[in-house]
Specification:
This protein is an alpha+beta fold and about 350 residues long. It is about 65% helix and about 5% strand. It has ten helices and four strands. Strands 1-4-2-3 form a four-stranded antiparallel sheet, with no helix packed on it. The N terminus and C terminus are likely disordered.
């Protein structure tokens, strides 16, 4: 698309753009509504009847099997809780990838590839307003839905915490990422990554694959940075002990005679003669572990979500600037000289 756009028709009102966008992506909207409703119902079931039944089964197990009495407990209730928890958690983890793939393939990539975007720009919708409408409506729907599901997942997990012996700990990676607003931040960032990739490539299939892969890279980056978004707690022990901790371990090492902490990767406890000899040569006075306890759960969630929201703003600005540059300078592939912005 290299030809200049003709004089635009009168601007289409924003509500009309929104209605048109919802009609255009009605199948995706219906799929998202069914997914949110289905997962919400499953999580309410998980946090209510399934948790109560599994907790009762574990109580019966501890009261009979652990005392050499005939085992009388509802094993099916325990397995049912475990299966539903696993399925709902996995489904929530896939939301950022689905949002990215859809945004790259359908929201921007396909319309640039087929020329539908350029046609819309000649019907009274400027390129920047066109993109703003495509980013705003899906962003609101996906973020709101994912946030509700994240809070329901957290509520379901909390209902079983301390009552079900096999319940996942708070620092279990899938449990942590799906139990709160963090999953909504990842979904929003995934959506905007997909929209940007769709504009960059202008090919729906390529954008689908690259968007999903980019979201995986984003997740790795978030997971790597997460432990450093909040000050850590430290547990220290002497040479004859081992630092006790519970939560997300960030770093470990030795304590020098002067009290300094030096990170090391080997022999962080005197379990063998070789380690004792090495720690003697190091001048080790004790050991330490930096970690995040349970009390850091919400600060980490909120800090990571805030970082993702900031990234989402940058991605949206990058998409708007890219489209502005291409439609005002006649850039490669999607440029349009003289387009209204």
């Amino acid at each position: 698309m290299t030809a200049a756009l003709s004089a635009p028709a009168p601007a289409r009102p924003a509500p009309r753009q929104v209605r048109w966008l919802l009609r255009l992506h009605r199948p995706a909207l219906a799929t998202w509504a069914v997914l949110v409703a289905g997962l919400a119902g499953a999580l309410l079931w998980l946090g209510g009847p399934l948790t109560d039944a599994a907790a009762t089964a574990w109580h019966d197990y501890d009261a009979t099997c652990a005392r050499d009495l005939p085992c009388r407990y509802d094993q099916a209730a325990i397995l049912r809780y475990k299966d539903v928890y696993q399925y709902t958690t996995t489904a929530l983890l896939l939301i950022p990838f689905l949002a990215a793939a859809w945004a790259g393939a359908a929201l921007t990539g396909r319309e640039v590839e087929t020329g539908t975007a350029r046609l819309g720009w000649t019907q009274g919708v400027s390129p920047l307003r066109w993109l703003a409408a495509r980013l705003t409506v899906p962003a609101l729907l996906i973020t709101a839905g994912a946030a509700v599901l994240g809070m329901l997942h957290q509520t379901a997990w909390a209902a079983g915490h301390g009552r079900i012996d096999t319940a996942k700990p708070w620092d279990d990676v899938p449990t942590f990422y799906t139990g709160g607003p963090l999953i909504a931040g990842l979904a929003l960032a995934g959506l905007l990554i997909g929209a940007l990739v769709g504009l960059l490539t202008g090919r729906s299939l390529v954008a689908l694959c690259v968007s999903a892969l980019s979201t995986a890279v984003l997740w790795i980056g978030v997971h790597t940075a997460l432990p450093h978004l909040w000050p850590v707690a430290t547990s220290v022990s002497g040479r004859r002990g081992f630092p006790s901790y519970s939560g997300i371990k960030v770093a470990e090492g030795i304590v020098t005679p002067g009290g300094a902490h030096r990170p090391v990767s080997t022999c962080t406890v005197d379990l063998s003669p070789e380690c004792r000899a090495l720690n003697d040569r190091r001048g080790t006075a004790g050991f330490y572990i930096d970690y995040h306890p349970y009390s850091h759960r919400w600060p980490l969630q909120l800090a990571a979500t805030g970082a993702l929201l900031a990234l989402a703003v940058l991605l949206a600005l990058a998409a708007l600037l890219l489209l502005h540059r291409r439609t005002t300078t006649g850039g490669t592939g999607t440029g349009h000289e003289g387009a209204a912005v």
